[in-house]
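Dear Dr. H.,

I hope your travels went smoothly. While you were away I took the liberty of generating a structure for the chain from your last submission, since the lab meeting agenda had it listed for discussion. I wanted you to have the full record in hand beforehand rather than looking at slides cold. The sequence, exactly as received, is reproduced here:
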Amino acid sequence: MMAWFQSARDSFHIGPLRIGSTYAEAQSSVRTSRSPARTLTMIFATVLLAAACTPGPAGGSPSPSGSSSAPGASASPSVQESTTAAPPSATDSPGGEKLGWGPGQKDLDAAAAAVSAMTVSQKAGQVLLPFYQGLDHAAQAAAIERLHLAGSIVMADNVPGTPDGQVDTAAMGKVTADLQKATSADGRTWPGLIAVDQEGGLVSRLRTPLTEWPTPMSYGAAGNPFLASDAGRSLAGELAGLGFNVDFAPDADVTIGPTDPTIGSRSISGNPETVGQMSVGFSQGMLAAGVLPAIKHFPGHGSVTVDSHLDLPVQPASTAQLEARDWMPFRAGIAAGVPIVMTGHIAVPALEPGMPASVSKATYTVLRSIGFKGVAVTDALNMEAIQKQFPGGSAAPKALAAGADLLLMPPDVEAAHKAIVEAVGNGSLTNDRLNEAAQRVITMMVWRGRTGVPPAPGPGSSADLSRKLSAAAVTVLSGPCHGSIIQGAATVTGGSAADRARFAKAAASAGVTIGTGPTVSLIGFGEGPVKADVAVSLDAPWSLASSTAATRIALYGRTPGAFDALLAVLTGKASAPGKLPVDVGSYPRGSGCL
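The corresponding predicted structure, in token form, is as follows:
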């Protein structure tokens, strides 16, 4: 490690950091860097220093990966699972050759041996990550066993709930355990992928009692990669406690503004360097909590004007333009060692006209050319951008042949599995390409299975950190930067009933009565400009540009903590330190109170 660190320090000019430094010293040195480009690589170095320079907790719990082989399964793949005494750092690589995101040579060798023992049917299963409908978890577990599937993604309709509408965390933990158990039925000893989409903001499949997080755009407004890392660790830690080991987050798309219909506040910023800094920090925090992050949606979904859930967007930019904007955050993430990159259903004429990037060989060629060695996963294959051109299971072998390693949410997993096996049989998909894809997935999970996972925080334990994030992000575009904006009373309009109720609860805590006084109008997702004394955007801030209000505030969230942060600013008890992460009408990116 010393040799690697010295090389990294020389390459990236990382100040006077050294093995033996404290974590505080490392953070101090990194924070003094005023160059965004340097900060990108320094985040990764700081996490390394934390592992190398300060003692970690002893006695980490082993991964719940299913460590016993099925008896009598001599033809089934089996990997000897080693144990580790302590939880991994975000960059743990105890196995020899370093790939950047963790696995070493012994993981590669174990995965290669496992793949060599597999049938084509087993390998076809290892590259499929399906979804399912409703609460029939037993049927999904049976499908995983029957088709040798890599695991399962859990969507909102699969989440068991309590009578009062919250997540039943005990039941959720049993579901993930049952799905995980199914992945080892054929003798696998590495964990299966139990995945979820949990970005924060609008894309949150698991809600209360888990901590609610504001939109990812909050990280861009707060401008603090260490806060993003803390949030990534905390969000992922609560997921790990429920049995998840993959989260398809963070979103590394650079938004172009209000003409971006899909990403919006899911994007961290309109500045590619900021997106890179914050997504790297968030990803490293997730890894430290034992959850594999996936940056998405390469080659960039924030700069197209069609929603790929509905149709195929066309990206008109040249490769030079893509390099300067959309690909910059992905380069940063790959340099820092992200394990998974998700490809989007976006046609890029500069790469391959008319072909969705997720099934285009040119896309994966670019991705590998910029140094990515991990698992390339497609966006959901049941989206219309794919289904209109490649219906049923036909997209699965096409994406694999192009260079994908993992196929997310085919509309019919049985049909996709059959199509892959048939494609190998007729030669349209080579056995070598299927082997490569399966080996990449298994290598990642062998590494994940043999490294420890830190103790998981309880559901809802990160509420204070979520509140801190919103307090750091809240941005005043117009109006006073100091002192009270409302005095003792306010009338709240707009938003949803739940938004207004949360505003009222935060107002009561701040000593503000509701029903008289200045009008505070909340602007929810997709809502237009408003007329009010105070306009507050709860999602992307673009609607503030045309709102008629003396005071305009971007909040980037509708969590309880976000409303607490808003009331603190409105009553003059706190400043609004956030800066606009995107252009909003005549207000350029970076606007906000000094």
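Two observations you may find useful: The first helix runs from residue 2 to 12. The two ends are 42 Å apart (CA to CA).

With kind regards,
E. W.
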